[in-house]
Design brief:
This protein is about 35% helix and about 30% strand. It has about 400 residues and is α+β, with helices and mostly antiparallel strands. It has 3 domains: about 80 residues, Elongation Factor Tu (Ef-tu), domain 3, CATH 2.40.30; about 150 residues, Threonyl-trna Synthetase, Chain A, domain 2 (Threonyl-tRNA Synthetase, Chain A, domain 2), CATH 3.30.980; about 110 residues, Roll (Diaminopimelate Epimerase, Chain A, domain 1). The strands form 5 sheets. It has a 6-stranded antiparallel beta barrel with strand order 2-3-7-6-5-8. β17 and β18 form a beta hairpin. The N and C termini lie far apart (about 90 Å). Zinc ion binds next to α1.
Length: about 400
């Protein structure tokens, strides 16, 4: 016996009585003769609520029948009372009807077809058959949709035979009886979901992010109280940003952009000064290092980071017959840099030095770096590299 879907004719029905037709899975899966619980389908999530005192955890559309999953077995397995969680349902009705309205407006204004929809916990989204939508068109569509909300147009549900149902926004591939949801003077769509009865009940419609997903533009949107909550959260974020800059809300974006630009310039200047400083440090270390029998100047340096060593290495190898052997303690690592006129291949020498003690590394013939398992082996690797110079 198929389940009669009460929500098809009355999406405002929240309380109902039904006969239990079958109970399965140790009482956790309940089938009724009729139900007001909406099952997950058409992108719309299932209802929650209570059935005979048990909490509903899922509602599944099995085609002919609807299965209600309950958290505890029913006390009475003959007749039950059902109560739909109205807050959740009404929120879904707002998002779902809002989607019909937005899709219709996007079609009417720009000829964009909606190819798929999704109703999420925080956002809903619809995918269009175009790759991008301009910011101006988003504002136009949002304005038009909200104007139709304010006109409080009727949203009606009718049942029509597929062969006679004309003027649908999207052709239905189904045959037989279609459930058609219409927004007066704007849209006719075949849909099995739950909708509000007038557009005014959708409340505010706010389009959020627009992103390209494969060949589609995906529009995220929120309706009703979700739009109000989202706008409130945005306002609070913007207030914190403006507060941190001691600016007004409207001045904040330009000020943030200006601050980012300053930060970028300061960072470039810091890097330039770091290189300049490295030049002086390299020269001082080089002058303090005695020349060996082959006139090589081997500079030993321990640093806090590999970045610091690399900057110093660049400056050191600009000096005649200079070699830099640099180390950092954590993680135990080694850097070798050789001036071109030394004829020494830093990459090869370093690789041999670190692999001998179980480490790994490499690089160019001028600058190479590697890591070793521990501090003891770092000392060994340094000794090995120095002896191979
Ligand atoms: Zn619908």
């Amino acid at each position: 016996m198929s389940t009669q879907r009460l929500y098809h004719t009355d999406s405002y029905l929240t309380e109902f009585d039904a006969c239990v037709v079958e109970v399965a899975d140790d009482g956790r899966r309940v089938y009724l003769d009729q139900t007001a619980f909406y099952p997950t389908s058409g992108g719309q999530p299932h209802d929650l609520g209570a059935l005979g005192g048990a909490r509903i955890s899922d509602v599944i559309d099995e085609g002919e029948r609807i299965a209600h999953l309950v958290e505890s077995p029913l006390r009475d397995e003959s007749a039950v009372h059902g109560a739909v969680d109205w807050e959740r349902r009404f929120d879904q009705m707002q998002q779902h009807t809002g989607q019909h309205l937005l899709s219709a407006v996007l079609e009417e204004l720009f000829g964009y077809h909606t190819v798929s929809v999704h109703f999420g916990r925080d956002y809903s989204s619809l995918d269009l058959d175009v790759e991008s939508v301009s910011g101006q068109r988003i504002v136009e569509a949002e304005t038009r949709a909200n104007a139709i909300v304010a006109e409080n147009r009727a949203v009606m549900t009718t049942f029509e035979d597929a062969s006679e149902a004309t003027g649908l926004r999207k052709e239905s591939g189904r045959t037989g009886m279609l459930r058609i949801v219409s927004i007066a003077g704007l849209d006719r769509s075949a849909c099995g979901g739950t909708h509000v009865r007038v557009t005014g009940e959708i409340g505010a419609i706010l389009i959020r992010k627009v992103e390209r997903v494969r060949k589609s533009a995906r529009l995220e949107f929120v309706c009703g109280l979700r739009a109000v909550r989202r706008a409130r959260a945005d306002f609070e974020s913007l207030t914190r940003i403006a507060g941190a800059l001691s600016a007004s809300l409207d001045d904040a974006p330009a000020l943030v952009a200006a601050q980012s630009e300053l930060l970028r310039a300061a960072e470039n200047e810091r890097r330039r000064m770091e290189r300049e400083l490295a030049g002086y440090r390299a020269k001082a270390l080089y002058d303090a290092a005695p020349a060996d029998s082959r006139n090589l100047r081997v500079v030993r340096q321990e640093a806090a980071s590999m970045d610091e060593l690399r900057t110093l290495a660049q400056a050191t190898i600009a000096l005649p017959r200079a070699v830099l052997v640099g180390t950092i303690g954590e993680p135990p690592s080694l850097l070798l840099a050789t001036a071109e006129d030394t004829g020494l291949d830093a990459g090869r020498l370093l690789r041999e030095g670190v692999t001998r003690v179980g480490g790994r590394g490499g690089g160019s013939s001028r600058i190479a770096q590697g890591s070793v398992p521990d501090a003891g082996r770092l000392t060994e690797a340094v000794a090995s590299v120095l002896s191979a110079l």
